[in-house]
Amino acid sequence: MSEAGQGKKDAGNGGEDPRYKGIDRVLKKLQFKQDGLIEVLTAAQEAFGYLPEEVMIYVARQLKLPFSWVYGVATFYHFFSLKPQGKHNAIICLGTACYVGRANDIVDAISKEYSVEPGHTTPDGEFTLTTTRCLGCCGLAPVVVFENQVLGKETPEGTIDKIKMVLAGGSLGTAAAPVEEASAT
Amino acid sequence: MRQQELMEMAQNERDRQGKFRCRLLCCASTPCISSGALAVEEALKKAVQAEGLQAEVETVATGCLGPCSRGPLVTVTQEGRPDIIYESVTPDIATRIVAKHFKGQAVPELDKNTIPQDWPFFAKQTKLVLAESGNVDPEKIDSYLAQNGFTALSKALREMTPEEVCAEMGKSGLRGRGGAGFPTGVKWDMVRKAPGERKYVVANGDEGDPGAYMDRTLMESDPFRVLEGMAIAGYAVGADQGFIYVRGEYPLAAKRLEKAIRQAERKGLLGSRILDSNFNFRIDIRMGAGAFVCGEETALMQSIMGRRGQPVPRPPFPANRGLWGCPTLINNVETFGNITTVISKGAAFFASYGTEKSKGAKIFALAGKVNNTGLIEVPIGITLREIVYEIGGGIPGGRPFKAAQTGGPSGGCIPAEYLDVPVDYETLQKLGSIMGSGGLIVMDDQSCMPDVAKFFMEFCMDESCGKCGPCRGGTVQMHRILDKITNGSATMEDLDKLQELCMMVKETSLCGLGQTCPNPIYSTLRYFRDEYEAHIKDHHCPAGVCQFTEKPLKIAVA
Q: Do A29 and A113 fall into the same domain?
């Protein structure tokens, strides 16, 4: 316990930020074993939304690993992001089935509409466009994950409409919409 | 827990289920949930409650049934009557299903949502691994026990020695389902014989191949089967610790496995002194963090140990020096799914399916331009035509079949003239593809082959771990040439250079990712060379995909 508090002070956070608590919990659960680095970083990313440098330094101190080692792991895996993510995140699946279903057109259309490259965030920090390699929903190709909902059988126009709606402050609620229609008939 | 208690528990659960007049099974795997299965389940429960039928009808959330593009699926099982499966169910349809079956209302509009009894999608399949998927509740161990769950582990512990278990695996002819097809019995025996105080069992669930989701479905739909298979493996090789490496993109699978492990531990089916024997076995989950190369066994072990997932040279093989230097058994999740079948039904039963050299059945994820997409389990040796045209129901719009892509970025394309060859490890290899983990993408005449090769090369380029030069640099150069071919700036010399590069990368790369990444180019060049030449010589894309925006640069050759 005291060790954890020490490390926080070293990292220059004064041990005040409550988000470090989640990291500490995982560290303790893994008994500060160096093998648990990926789990710790996953917890850190969940708490912070991305991996700021001081968090990586904190993790490195706690696990008694060189910072370069932590940085190496954080940059190796696609899941970890060293940059803050936008408020809304659209993940376009580029697996083979989605590729055959022309998911590339969706990516192109979105990046044109919001002038944002895949993997980047719009300057206002509102929207991030991400691509991924197969979500395993190939029966629904092409697949887009937006607002933590898996949307199947997407089209470039349909996806942009949904993004516009959410960015304008609306909510998705796609699952509910067709249902109401059906029961009304 | 003893054997006797295990049987009692199973019987109790069977009695409990038998009390219900009818069970409503609602598929709750990722694809069905994406199309709204949770709302459907809710609606079913509400409707049953509204009719006051809770004592007679049970609603269960189960695993995957297979035809994922038609979800959400609801199965109505009634004693003495054939099961009826409804597709594309909405909450509204769900209430109508309840009305039809329990109030005797005639609901003719439900007919279009009813899957016909003799639908070839189901009729042509042989379910060995997925036998209980779509039938058991993946979040309740009792449900699995009622289907004779954990009897295979009990049989192995009480009646067989580790040697006998390994021998049984060898006799069954089971081969690794991860792609390479290494005989499972031989691998188990190697780990069993390897000297070492501690040994480990690892289930590889880092299913990185785009277009493949067999492992995810198995982990989500029948997690107990995987755990039981791993425990049997642990007993056979003398390990007391197992890891399941789950791909980071599969949070639901990890959640269900976690739950399954906890339930099994509480019942004494995992942990210390399993089933009152001297055998201890613990299983932990490790989550991947999004790196394709971690599917390679040495990279996967690095990742389990919290390092960058970079492969290391083999030998020493993991069977001798694996996790933390100890002998380690690594098998695919689907391989572990086969173990209970082999042990409980016997090697001879298992070997009665499949071809001479490849036994059993294989799960494929059928996707792409085909009418019925989804997960299928077919006996090895079935023809591609049966898969595409009978199970898959042909190609939408009656378009011609052009090629089937198997094995993901390490595999290749099989053209139409080989539709009638049997699908097994050897034949596919001869055709320049591989069985792979089981992704099967059907392409019609609207797919451009050089573009497909470019797609896979881009994938390998992104996913190359950067450790060895041939793969790190070779994939970039190969991608560049393919880019030139598809944008019109390539010359015939580039094609020669591409082939030379393929050979170089294949021969000199460190791990499987690099050694197999030229396969998509090789196989498309072999069967569709005319398309490459049409791109280069005539600036014409036969499939109408590529935009020729560039021109070849003319350089005077000195």
A: no
Q: ipTM value, please give it.
A: 0.87
Mean pLDDT (chain B) is 92
- Pairing state between β B401-406 and B439-444: antiparallel
Asked which of A12, A44, A76 is the last residue of a domain, the reply is: A76
Question: What is the amino acid identity at position B28?
Answer: A
Q: Min CA distance, A5 vs chain B (Å)?
A: 24
Question: In sequence order, what are the residues at sequence separation of 6 or more whose Cβ sits closer than 8 angstroms to the Cβ of residue B81?
Answer: none
CATH at residue B403: 3.10.20.600
Among partner residues A38, A133, A152, which is closest to B35 by beta-carbon distance?
Answer: A152
For residue B303, give the nearest of A38, A100, A178 by CB distance. A38
CA torsion B431-B436-B440-B443 (nearest 10°) is -50
Statement to judge: residues B153 and B256 lie in one domain: yes
- Report d(CA B530, CA B525) in Å as an integer: 8
Range of the domain at B433: 361-444
Residue B113, min C-alpha distance to chain A (Å) = 14
Residue type at position B196: G
Instruction: Report whether B362 contacts B387 (CB < 8 A).
Output: no
Is the per-residue pLDDT at A3 higher than 60? no
Q: For residues B424, B428, B433 and B434, what is the CA-based torsion angle, rounded to 10 degrees?
A: 20
Single pTM value for the model: 0.91
pLDDT per residue over B381-412, tens digit each? 999 999 999 999 999 999 999 999 999 899 99
Flag whether pLDDT at A103 surpasses 50: yes
Q: Is A50 domain-assigned?
A: yes
Q: How far apart are CA B364 and CA A57, in angstroms?
A: 44
- Among A50-64, A147-161, B170-184, B470-484, the minimum mean pLDDT is found in A147-161
CATH of the domain at B90: 3.40.30.10
Which ranges constitute the DSSP H helices of B346-408? 347-351, 384-385
Q: Which residues of A touch B218 (CB under 8 A)?
A: none
- The reply to whether A165 touches chain B by the CB within 8 Å rule is no
Q: Does the pLDDT of residue B413 top 50, yes or no?
A: yes
Domain boundary among A76, A109, A139: A76
- Do A136 and A94 lie in one domain? The reply is yes
Using alpha carbons, select from B43, B212, B478 the residue that is nearest to residue A182.
Answer: B43
Statement to judge: residues A66 and A123 lie in one domain:
no
pLDDT bucket at B232, cuts 50 / 70 / 90: very high
Are A99 and A159 within one domain? Answer: yes
pLDDT tens digits, B69-87: 888 999 998 888 888 999 9
DSSP structural state of residue B398 = G
Query: In terms of residue numbers, what domain contains A148?
Result: 88-184
**Which tokens belong to B256?**
């269900």
State whether residue B401 sits within 8 Å of chain A by CB.
no
Q: What angle do CA B127, B205, B197 make, to 5 degrees?
A: 110
pLDDT at B554 over 80: no
Cβ-defined contact of A76 to B308 (cutoff 8 Å): yes
- Domain match, B218 and B346 both: yes
**Chain B contact for A36, CB < 8 A?**
yes
List the 264-323 stretch of B: residues with Cβ below 8 A of A: 286-292, 303-310
Q: Are residues A46 and A92 in the same domain?
A: no
Q: What is the pLDDT of residues B414-428, one digit of tens each?
A: 999 999 999 999 999
Question: What is the predicted pLDDT for the residue at B101?
Answer: 86
